[in-house]
Each structure stands twice: as C-alpha cells, then as structure tokens.
Design brief:
alpha/beta; eight-stranded mixed sheet; 8 strands
Amino acid sequence: MFGRVVFLSFAPSEFSAYAAGGVYAYFMRLLGKTPETFTVQDFYSGWGNRMLGAMALGVRYIGCDANTRLEKPYEKLAAFGKGQIANQPLKKAEPQIVDRREGAKPRWRAGGTALYFQKSETLPKSLIPAKGVDIVFSSPPFFDGNLVEEYTGTESDYETFMRTSLVPIMKRCLAAKIWVCLYIPTNMYNDLKKEFGSAKKKFKFVAKMNNLNGAYSNSNIIYCWKSY
C-alpha cells in the first residue's frame, strides 16, 4: 500500500502488515489465545501496518499516535480492512475493550479497533497498558542522530523522547507482566538494553521497498521483552 510513496527520500514504512500478522500469530499460540480473545496495544501507531495486520486476523487493536493528521487516513484504512466502501461512513461498533475509568475516550472505533490521537505518555495511567491487553507491539520514531520520524506533536529530541515517553511506558507495561515488542533500529535497542536487559525474543524479517534510488531490501529485527 505504501511501497510507492516517497517520504523524505525514504519509503515511509518498511514494516508490513504481513510481518505484524506473524507476530500476532506467534503470541496467540504462545498464550493460548484466539483472535477473538487476543488484544494488542500500539503506543506509536505510525502508518497503520500493525493495525491492518490485526484487522486481517480479527485481532483486537488499541492504537495511539500523536499525529492528528493521520486520523482521516486511519478511518479509510479501517474501512478498507473491514471491507467497507471508502466514501461511506465508518461503522462504529463498541468492542468494550478500553478502560474508561479516567474518562478517556478514543477518537473513533471500528469493530475491535480503537484509536487515540495524542502523545502516548498523556494517556490516562489506566490505559498504560489498557485493561485486557495481551501484548504491546509498536514502532516508536526511529533515531539516527535525531528522531527521523517527526510526527506532529512528538518530541524532536531523542533523550527527551526516551526519558518522558518510551522508557516510562515500557516500565509500566513490563510491570504488568505483558510482552513488549518493538520494531526499532539497533542503536535504540542498545540504549533500551541498558535499561531493561537483552530482549527475550527476537523476530527477523526482510523488507523489500522502493525509494528515489530504486528498489532495496533491508533485514530488520523486532525485539521483545517480558518481566516474569
């Protein structure tokens, strides 16, 4: 879907919905879950690949992204995933999977999907993690000297982002005994390893994409942590 889009000379996402589906399938087997009983939370939803993978499998998905400009594209993506006509209103079912004790409400819902458009660290504590979540699976803005994915409203400073957003969120989720899986570059993994130790599991996948310089492929790793 996004392979032909050029974004600052790079394709906007090397992560595929197919790779997300593979991760979901693995953890459903590991946890003895079915799609109807499996819930994933994504604190940096980005371009929607993990949401689309969840919808393809019928997995419940709770997403959050600070870029409010993605709200309409996400609505169209959800409509596509549910087999709806893009220019018709999105059906808004209530899956009852989001904890509302602190009054937080997602911007919209579609079947088993709920989306928030704000900084993840500003979510109510009862949503970090949300009630009933089985795994956290996300891809925070990549760091390469600077944050190379600067979504509207996100921190542009790497140290600030790590200290105020990613690390505190990981601490809360790991304290809840939930698997936390991140698609991140090696340098970010090395920094997180100092805080949380080595990942318990690693998934490797190859992405084939296109940019201004032509076709290319990258080998990428998803890192997963768990506290016991």
